[in-house]
Amino acid sequence: MHFSSNVKQLVLLLIVGIFLLLGYVHYSFFNERLNGVWFEASNRDIPVDEDQRNTSRTDVMAVTPWLAPIVWEGTFDPDLIDIIYKSMNLTIATTVFAVGKYVRFLRDFLETAEKHFMVDFNVRYYVFTDRPDDVPSVNMSQGRHLSVIQVPGSNRWQEISARRMEIIQTAIERQISREADYIFCLDVDSKFHARWGAESLGRLVAVIHPWFYRATRDQFTYERRPASTAYIPMDEGDYYYAGAVFGGSVEDVYTLTKVCRKQLEEDARNSIEAAWQEESHLNRYLLYNKPSKLLSPEYQWDDTKTNTNEVKVIRFSTVIKNYAEIRPNV
């Protein structure tokens, strides 16, 4: 039997169509296995399709109104996340302030970080302190390094807090931008308890405050005075973000710290101090520059707070302490 040229073309098109269909099915199957993984490409967060996200957590909100993921236990595959990110040979910078008596928390912070924070990744810790001789010696895994940067102390903890953005901005300009791809700015009076991995990486990352993740907007402790550059009106706001944790690409965090520093300096010239210093300015910045990823309160718990059903694992928490004893002023 002989086929005409038209029939041959139809058969060829049919075969090609079958191969394309098989390719699409294979691609869709692979995408579905990502189960909520968000990964970087050209320094951007790329979400998998909505119906391909892990939906095993129905008790919490796992995505923001602007479609950024909120990372909870059970919303990502740690093995697949590690496969994707570890092949990129990334370096993560971690800044921490150990000023005055806060240096006493540094050993626990570093030792628990070596057990749980970005394990098997290149990590550079940048410790800002006025007591460099009191920085403890901690064994670091391969590819992990610690730099001590001396900064002045202060008689007011509010001033130390307010200068944090300026110091991080300067450190990025002078050193960090050449040494790291991502950066997390963390509080020293905290410790790690469980995995904090590449699922936390993103262009601009913030953590939902553990005391406000169930609160309504009118309960947020934003700066409410219009005279401050950190001002947020009562009818605005998405989440209340903790100042103890923020991060992202080095470039994006640099922009954040630069803007917040300018606002803090403008407030100082106008003799006004935002309600929660740099945390107030951080919330203002993130309101109008939406984070590309949010971390749940698992990534910044408070040891004084009772555990809740939503929090399946505590990864990082603020330790209990006597503020009257460790702060130069209260």
How would you briefly describe this protein structure?
The protein is 32% helix and 18% strand. With 330 residues, it is α/β, with parallel strands linked by helices. It starts with a helix and ends with a helix.
Across the major sheet, the strand order is 3-11-9-10-7-4-5-6
The total count of helices amounts to 8
Please report the total strand number as a whole number.
Answer: 13
Average per-residue pLDDT, rounded, comes to 85
Gyration radius over CA: 23 Å
What does the largest sheet look like? 8 strands, mixed
Termini, distance in Å?
Answer: 96 Å
Low-confidence stretches: 19-55
Estimate the helix proportion, in percent: 25-40%
Order of helices and strands: HEEEHEHEEHHEEEEHHEEEH
Shape: globular
Residue fraction in strands? 15-25%
Structural class: alpha/beta
What does this structure look like?
By secondary structure, the protein is of the alpha/beta class. The chain contains eight helices and 13 strands. The protein has helices at 5-33, 78-86, 106-116, 157-162, 164-179, 250-269, 278-288, 323-326, and strands at 39-41, 44-46, 70-71, 91-97, 122-129, 144-150, 182-187, 190-192, 204-208, 241-249, 293-295, 301-302, 316-318. Strand 1 (39-41) and strand 2 form a beta hairpin. The longest helix is centred in the first third of the chain and has 29 residues, at 5-33. Mean pLDDT is 85; it is low at 19-55.
Task: Give keywords.
330 residues; alpha/beta; 8-stranded mixed beta sheet; 8 helices
